[in-house]
Structures are given as C-alpha cells and as structure tokens.
C-alpha cells in the first residue's frame, strides 16, 4: 500500500514538509523502502534545526486557523508513520530498518511539538516564555506585603471585591488624584462638585439604571452559589481554545465567534450556549439555572420609614446632570463648560475577580463637558492634534487587524473620531496616563463597535491598558449626545436646557417628532419607553423618510437599537412635521462629552508597568523595584544617616525639617541595618531618591533606577529634590550641575 500524507499549501520539494512513505510487507520491496527512509534520515539531520523553530509560514490574519489545520495534518502523518513502524516490526524487519522509520516518526513528533508551541503562543497572545501568572503573583505579593493594598476585613477572611489601601497605596492614589485635578480641573477651569453616594430611586429610574443596569446571572442549582453567565461562557471558550490544541479549526472558529458576539447574546441565547457546551458550576460541577438579569446596584432606603427607596450610586455622573441648571447659571449661562467629580461608586458585582480591576466599591473621576450639539469644535484642539499613539478604530477591529499608530488630527479629518472636542479629550487622556508612568507601548484607544454603543451615542472610545490580565478598559471617553439631560428633563419636569440669543429674530424651520404614547403603550407595552426614545432620537432625514413611508403605506419598519430588532410603526403612533416660526433665541439641550476614569484600574496597571526585578550586589537574590515617576511615588525621598551617630542624626533631622517645609513627603530611617538593605527597602516602595548623611556639611543623593549619586551641600538638598519631584527639572539636569559621587558604589 502507498500512504501519501502532504502538508497543505507547502511545496513538496521541502524534504521535511512533504514525505511519501511506501509500506510493504513483501521482502522484494523492502530494500526500496529502506533506501527511501535513509534518504529521509539524511534530510532530517540537515533540516531539523530549522523545523524545530519554524514549522510553517503563515500570515497573521489566519495564523491560528492555519496552525490548527497544520497540527491536524501532522497528527495524521504521525499516525501513518506509526502504522509503518508497526508493520515493519510485524514483518520481522532488521533493527536498522526499524530504527530509520522510528527516527522519521520522532522527527514528525518534534515538528508537531513545534506547531503546538506556536499555536499555544498564538492562542494566548504571548510568547510561551513569558509567564504572566508568575509576574502578576510577584507584583501582587509585593503590593500586599508592603501594604499598598490588602483584602478588606482580612481577619474575618475578607469579602470578595472589597480592598483596603494601606499607607503607600493611599499616597499613590492621592498623588494620582491630585495630578488629575491639576491636569483636567485646573487646566480646563472645570467646575468641581461633590454629590452624595446615596441616590433617590427616581433619579436612577430617569437615567435607566433601575431598568437596565443588569448582568445575566446563573445559580448552582444545589448550593445556590451565583455566577456571572457570560464569564462562565467566556472562560469555557478561552480554556478550550488554549488547552485543546487538537480541536478542529471549524470548532475553534465557532468558539471565537461566540467570544466575539458574547455581549450581544440574550438571556435565552446565553442559556442555550451554556447547555450546548455542558457548562456546569466551576466549584461543584453541579448543573446551573437558566440565566436571569441581576441589577448591580446596592439598594437601600432613605429615612427610617422605608418609604423612600434609594441606591448607592453606580457612577458619579448623575449628580452632575441633575445639577446642570445651577451649574449653567454659575457659569454665566455660557457654553461650553465642564463639571467634574471624584467620588466612590458601588456595583454589586456577581463574581468579582482580578483584584483591583473588578471590585464592588471603587473611585471614579468623571468629567461632563457640556457643548452645543451644532458646534463641537474645541479652541485647544490644535495643542493635541499632532499627538501620535496607538488607536484601534472599529474598521480595523472588524477586519481582524491590530491597533496602529495614528496622528490624532488625521483621525478627525478622516471622520474616524467624530468631533474635535472628543478628540481633544482623547489626547488629554493620553498625556495624563503617560505622565503617570503608563507605558505608551501598552496603551491604546479602542473605538466602540456599533453593537457596543447606545443608540443615542455619537462616538465612544476606551483607553485600554495592557497588563497581565490582557487589555483592560481604564478610561471611557464618550459623546453621549443629549440623552442624559433630556431623560432628567422628562422625568423631573425641569427643563435642563441652554440658550443662544440672536442679535436679530430668525425664521427657523423646526422638526417636530411627537410620539403618541397611548398608542405606543398599547402596541409595545413595557417596551414603550425605548420605542419613544428611539423615535425622538431620529435625525431629520430619518424622520422625514419615516413620515413619507407612513403616509404612503400606513405603516413602516423601524429599528430600535435598545430592543435589538425592527418593529412596525403605524401612522397613528407618531406625528412628524416641520414648523416655521420666528425666534429671538435658540433653546436647545446640550450634548455632553464624558471622560470617565476608573482610578483603581489605572493604579493597578501603573503598579504592573512600574514593577521590575534586578539582582542584588551579591547576585544571590532578585530585588523588587517600582519605578514610579516622582509625580506619583508614595514617598519622594528617604533620609539615611550612614551610621548611628548623634551628629549625623541631627543633620538628618535638619534635612527632614527643610523637606517638610518644602512640602516633600519623606521618611527617616535610622535603623542599624546596612545602607544597601535600606536602599533595597525603599526601592521596593518606589521611592525615587535616597539622601545619605555621611558628613555634617554635605550629603549624597542617590537616584533609584540608575543608582547614580551626587554630592550636595545640606542647605541645597530640599530645593534640588523639590525641583525634580515637582517636574521642574529632571535627574539628567541635576547631573549636569552636580558632579556624580562615585567613591563608594550606591549599593555598598
């Protein structure tokens, strides 16, 4: 019999990529078989080195699919070669003959292992040599040991999704928020407010949170333990893709499609997938209930009677929206203006995980920039237009490409970013994050796909930071149009509008869309509100097209984004007209552009981006270092008397007073341990500068990452440290003025 197994799409001329093995039990053909195998054996020795590192050549677009197909075909060849070995053994072939066939089989196995390695790297999105879990564990262990943060209520075994910041963590958080205020609130003359965490139910009904702020949940049918349904399906698909390398390419494509549409699945579709894949409770392997919606807000009651329901706010934005009228008046009845708020938000996550990235209480910093919907230009846009950084427009996502560097101005001129004000804030967010210490190579701005955006949103982008958990959304920058102010106007009866006065009266033609709520309620019942919102959100062309269809046919198909389907609108359900009248002023509902910052997520990513390890002087251990910029470092400098000496300690106290007067956070360490160990301790806290007192007139200042030292007089210490920590100069500038001190190495 002749078995020919060839790898698809690879030239047959390559000795290892196209092997024809002839197998026969008859002695007359054996010499031909052996000579053929010996030729293969010779070719193995010359080509195996390259085969181990490069099994196949593929393009990035179809990398995973090609690798899976190659792996399946390689497995078929291994089985065929294994049959050859067994037949030769059964026929009583000589040992050298069998050895040649076995060597070919082993070579095929090596090729298979190489493809598996490439496939594993392609699936996980990282080189197999990089152990993300080990890196994350090293970071988290250091953070918890040095009390940056720890699980809350630790002595009572803690509560999932709740964390306490310790002293250095509080300092980092305080520094991040102080820089946020400087970078945004002061720079843009924003109006800062501070609103209550407890919010009346009616406010959150108007915003849609009571009805829509839900995740789909499943329960362990025996223990009652709750799980987030989409997380279980996502984990199942990812685990299968990463671990089942022999999975057919078609099945892998199916699982990848499920991951792509996961956010769009209804409760019924999600439940069907869970049943199709036989997904069970992770801890007990018990069957799961059907998915059902769970509202993520913490409910409470205001006052002792229990008659006034409320919620712990899930975001800070609503406090700004309900105060728009007063803020507009405070700003002199002028647009544009921005309001900002920093505060705690609460979300009763079904299954919190990933440390600080998914918690039940967290700090948000949000900006609501109110602007005329007919003029979304920004006077300071040219300041950021030339910035170039990783952007991930929806077209690239849909075509399977990766993020690419784009000039911000180009994205506006090409219509990728909707308007100048949105682009301005994208640029400012980029500058903010990179100044904090976020690696710009691991920062990208991803545009929301059409199915991710609410029907009223004009454009939305997320600042995503890559860490050991993958790409994490840390800042959302959205043009929310006028939805929020309109919703609160309708619910409260108070017009949240702006005015533009005309120098001369103008005759204007206005589009009037008047949904007939009674008829819509009879037809769509509980979905009436969403249908009304969709009708009122139509632009002029869409509205006039709908009117023409209704007049011609009496009914029309109308797509409602929030329902995810088309409905039939009849002529008696909506009135659409244009009216002409003279106006002395224009009254309109402002649009809002909202940058929303998850402070805890930013800080955790900053921890990972700042962490590295370096060998000790003796090379016998790895020392942990956080390379925080001075801007966010929890302590700006430490003061060390070189030895326990009364004079040195007095100088240390004098320096401490001058640092305090300059507003520089610092710490004195007069323990008797070696100076090298004291340096290592402060490096692990991310302290950028260490002042060593080794005389009564001058001291050395050591920089954390380079370990370079300078010698400087005691009187100048505070001013030099302040200049660098305030960002007025850099360490490189300091080295130009003060000569390096190298009589003793920093570690010694």
UniProtKB/TrEMBL annotation:
One of its GO terms (biological process) is mitochondrial glycyl-tRNA aminoacylation. InterPro entries: aa-tRNA-synt_IIb, aa-tRNA-synth_II, aa-tRNA-synth_II/BPL/LPL, Anticodon-bd, Anticodon-bd_dom_sf, Gly-tRNA_synthase/POLG2, GlyRS-like_core, tRNA-synt_gly. One of its GO terms (cellular component) is mitochondrion. The keyword DNA repair does not apply. Residues 133-615 form the Aminoacyl-transfer RNA synthetases class-II family profile domain. Its EC number is 6.1.1.14. CDD domains: GlyRS-like_core (cd00774), GlyRS_anticodon (cd00858). It is found in: Cytoplasm. Residues 70-126 form the WHEP-TRS domain. Signal peptide: none annotated. It catalyses: tRNA(Gly) + glycine + ATP = glycyl-tRNA(Gly) + AMP + diphosphate. Pfam families: HGTP_anticodon, tRNA-synt_2b, WHEP-TRS. GO terms for molecular function: ATP binding; glycine-tRNA ligase activity; transferase activity. It is an enzyme of class 6 (ligase). Keywords: Aminoacyl-tRNA synthetase, ATP-binding, Cytoplasm, Ligase, Nucleotide-binding, Protein biosynthesis, Transferase. Belongs to the class-II aminoacyl-tRNA synthetase family. Homodimer. This is glycine--tRNA ligase.
């Amino acid at each position: 019999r002749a078995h020919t197994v060839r790898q698809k799409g690879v030239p047959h001329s390559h000795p290892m990529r196209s092997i024809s093995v002839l197998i026969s039990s008859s002695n007359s053909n054996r010499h031909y078989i052996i000579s053929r195998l010996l030729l293969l054996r010779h070719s193995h020795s010359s080509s195996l080195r390259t085969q181990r590192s490069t099994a196949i050549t593929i393009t990035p677009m179809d990398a995973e699919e090609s690798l899976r197909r190659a792996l399946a075909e390689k497995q078929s060849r291994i089985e065929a070669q294994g049959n050859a070995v067994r037949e030769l053994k059964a026929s009583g072939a000589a040992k050298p003959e069998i050895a040649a066939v076995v060597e070919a089989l082993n070579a095929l196995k090596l090729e298979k292992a190489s493809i598996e390695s490439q496939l594993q790297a392609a699936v996980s999105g990282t080189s197999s040599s990089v152990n993300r879990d080990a890196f994350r564990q090293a970071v988290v262990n250091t953070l918890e040991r040095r009390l940056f943060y720890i699980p809350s209520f630790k002595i009572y075994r803690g509560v999932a999704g709740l964390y306490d910041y310790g002293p250095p963590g509080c300092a980092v958080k305080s520094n991040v928020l102080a820089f946020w205020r400087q970078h945004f609130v002061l720079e843009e003359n924003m109006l800062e407010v501070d609103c209550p965490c407890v919010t009346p139910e009616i406010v959150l009904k108007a915003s849609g949170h009571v009805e829509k702020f839900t995740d789909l949940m499943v329960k362990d049918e025996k223990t009652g333990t709750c799980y987030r349904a989409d997380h279980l399906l996502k984990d199942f698909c990812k685990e299968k893709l990463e671990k089942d390398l022999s999975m057919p390419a078609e099945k892998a494509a199916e699982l990848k499609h499920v991951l792509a549409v996961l956010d769009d699945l209804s409760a019924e579709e999600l439940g069907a997938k869970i049943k199709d894949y036989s997904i069970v409770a992770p801890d007990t392997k018990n069957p799961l209930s059907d998915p059902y919606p769970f509202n993520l807000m913490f409910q409470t009651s205001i006052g002792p009677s229990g008659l006034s329901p409320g919620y712990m706010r899930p975001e800070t934005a609503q406090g700004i929206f309900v105060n728009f009228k007063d803020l507009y008046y405070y700003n002199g009845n002028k647009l544009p203006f921005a309001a900002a708020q920093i505060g705690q938000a609460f979300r009763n996550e079904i299954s919190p995980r990933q440390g600080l990235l998914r918690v039940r209480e967290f700090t948000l910093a949000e900006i609501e920039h109110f602007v005329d919907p007919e003029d979304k230009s920004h006077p300071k846009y040219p300041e950021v237009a030339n910035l170039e950084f990783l952007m991930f427009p929806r077209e690239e996502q849909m075509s399977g490409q990766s993020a690419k560097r784009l000039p911000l101005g180009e994205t506006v001129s090409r219509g990728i970013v909707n308007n100048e004000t949105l682009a301005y804030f994208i640029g400012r967010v980029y500058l903010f994050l990179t100044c904090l210490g976020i690696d710009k190579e691991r920062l990208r701005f991803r545009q929301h796909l059409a199915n991710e955006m609410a029907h009223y949103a004009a454009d939305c982008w997320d600042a995503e930071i890559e860490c050991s958990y993958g790409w994490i959304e840390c800042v959302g920058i959205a043009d929310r149009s006028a939805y929020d102010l309109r919703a609160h106007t309708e619910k409260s009866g108070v017009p949240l509008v702006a005015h533009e006065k005309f120098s001369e009266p103008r005759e204007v033609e206005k589009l009037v869309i008047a949904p007939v709520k009674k008829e819509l309620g009879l037809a769509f019942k509980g979905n009436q509100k969403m249908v009304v919102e969709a009708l009122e959100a139509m632009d002029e062309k869409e509205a006039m097209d709908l009117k023409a269809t209704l007049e011609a046919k009496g009914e029309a198909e109308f797509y409602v984004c929030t329902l995810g389907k088309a409905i039939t609108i009849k002529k008696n359900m909506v009135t659409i007209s244009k009216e002409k009248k003279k106006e002395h002023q224009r009254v309109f509902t402002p649009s809002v552009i909202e940058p929303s910052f998850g402070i805890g997520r930013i800080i955790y990513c900053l921890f990972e981006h700042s962490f590295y390890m370096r060998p000790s002087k003796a090379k016998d251990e790895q020392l942990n270092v956080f390379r925080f910029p001075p801007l966010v470092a929890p302590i700006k400098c430490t003061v060390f008397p070189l030895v326990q000496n009364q004079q040195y300690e007095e100088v240390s106290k004098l320096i401490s007073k001058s640092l305090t007067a300059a507003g520089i956070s610092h710490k004195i360490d007069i323990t008797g341990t070696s100076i090298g160990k004291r340096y290592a301790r402060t490096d692990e806290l991310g302290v950028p500068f260490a002042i060593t007192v080794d005389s009564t007139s001058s001291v050395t200042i050591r920089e954390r990452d380079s370990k370079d030292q300078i010698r400087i007089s005691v009187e100048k210490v505070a001013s030099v440290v302040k200049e660098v920590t305030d960002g007025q100069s850099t360490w490189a500038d300091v080295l130009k003025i003060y000569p390096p001190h190298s009589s003793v190495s920093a570690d010694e």
